[in-house]
């Protein structure tokens, strides 16, 4: 059921005798100044790391929920430096709020992952993020693994092994889909990084009920929250989703700053690459894709459905209010009730309305509202 994913840009690498490191793509001559910007960022983080270690800061792992299939698991975490006196076994509490942005990432950090009684050595990327597959035989369900950074303490992380018989998965956008943002799109990333805590935003009405209903009717499938937000805010987003009773799942976020090919990372490229990876990892899975009509989600989902019609069960688009649409920079004009590549395409302003539409097209059963 799993096809080995292609390495993502700046992807972390397993290390050891059996590892294979893909070469980085060659830089174009016209991108030399962008490459220098990335190198300058690397030098700045390296200086901060050296200075932090001299001050006695120690490496900690911020664990994120992962997923997997038969014979493999995707491990997600971030390695940071924090003060030694803090709770190293619960580092998420130590880097809340603005500290999530000012914390020092450990570039190329080595971590030891213990899963199924077997140890795996992995390495982080330039931003301290570990995102790598490991070979492990675990039965379907939720499992606890441990992740230990070099020179630090082990922490527990969760991975959900997807049942090979599951056929329906849930993939959801976050901003203006599960969370009411009410901000101009260019300011969302800054708000999420510098201001957002789990109490500062409100959930979109009815969406958590819709998601729980989807999970009840289609159990054991993957649940993925896909966002252009930075990994800095993952703990806050996790707490927001938990506080507002959204079903637990995997966050797939990205990073800010220059790469060796472009000055700023493309959020839409991140989403497209994530969808393509999920299609490779779960070739028999059909996804309910949920987003909003603020410019990008419909275009992204339509392209994915046309490229992978066998992997889309339905597209559910939350209709923004007029004021939300203005802040989002406009909305798309897809016809309500249409299909794309044979999959139902439904729209409504909230979770209850989307539930009714998904009942109408047969993705959900029973009454339109709980």
TrEMBL record:
Signal peptide start and end residues: none
Positions of the UniProt region annotated as Disordered: 1-31
Phosphatidate phosphatase APP1 catalytic domain location: 168-319
Xref: InterPro entries: APP1_cat (IPR019236), Mg2+_PAP (IPR052935)
Transmembrane segments: none
A Pfam family the protein falls into: APP1_cat
MF terms in GO: phosphatidate phosphatase activity
Protein name listed in UniProt: DUF2183 domain-containing protein
Organism in which the protein naturally occurs: Microcella daejeonensis
């Amino acid at each position: 059921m799993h096809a080995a994913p292609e390495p993502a840009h700046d992807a972390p690498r397993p290390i050891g005798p059996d590892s294979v490191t893909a070469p980085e793509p060659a830089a174009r001559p016209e991108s030399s100044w962008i490459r220098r910007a990335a190198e300058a960022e690397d030098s700045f983080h390296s200086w901060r790391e050296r200075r932090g270690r001299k001050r006695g800061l120690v490496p900690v792992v911020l664990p994120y929920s992962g997923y997997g299939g038969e014979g493999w698991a995707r491990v997600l975490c971030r390695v940071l430096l924090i003060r030694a006196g803090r709770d190293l076994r619960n580092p998420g509490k130590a880097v809340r709020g603005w500290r999530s942005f000012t914390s020092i990432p450990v570039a190329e950090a080595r971590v030891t992952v213990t899963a199924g009684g077997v140890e795996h050595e992995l390495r982080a990327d330039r931003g301290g993020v570990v995102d790598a597959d490991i070979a492990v035989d675990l039965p379907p369900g939720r499992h606890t693994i441990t992740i230990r950074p070099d020179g630090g303490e082990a922490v527990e992380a969760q991975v959900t092994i997807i049942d090979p018989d599951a056929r329906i998965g849930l993939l959801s956008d976050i901003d203006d889909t599960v969370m009411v943002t009410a901000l101009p799109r260019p300011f969302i990333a800054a708000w999420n990084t510098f201001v957002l805590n789990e109490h500062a935003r409100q959930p979109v009405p009815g969406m958590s009920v819709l998601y729980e209903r989807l999970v009840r009717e289609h159990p054991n499938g993957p649940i993925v929250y896909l966002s252009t937000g930075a990994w800095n805010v993952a703990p806050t987003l996790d707490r927001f989703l938990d506080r507002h009773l959204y079903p637990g799942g995997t966050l797939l976020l990205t990073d800010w700053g220059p790469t060796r090919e472009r000055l700023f990372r493309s959020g839409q490229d991140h989403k497209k690459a994530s969808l393509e990876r999920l299609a490779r990892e779960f070739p028999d899975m059909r996804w309910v894709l949920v987003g909003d009509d603020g410019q990008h989600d419909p275009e992204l989902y339509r392209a994915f459905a046309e490229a992978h019609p066998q992997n889309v069960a339905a597209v559910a688009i939350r209709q923004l209010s007029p004021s939300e649409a203005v802040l989002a920079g406009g909305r798309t004009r897809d016809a309500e009730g249409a299909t794309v590549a044979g999959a139902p395409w439904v729209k409504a302003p909230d979770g209850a309305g989307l539930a009714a539409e998904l009942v109408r097209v047969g993705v959900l059963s029973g009454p339109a509202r709980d």
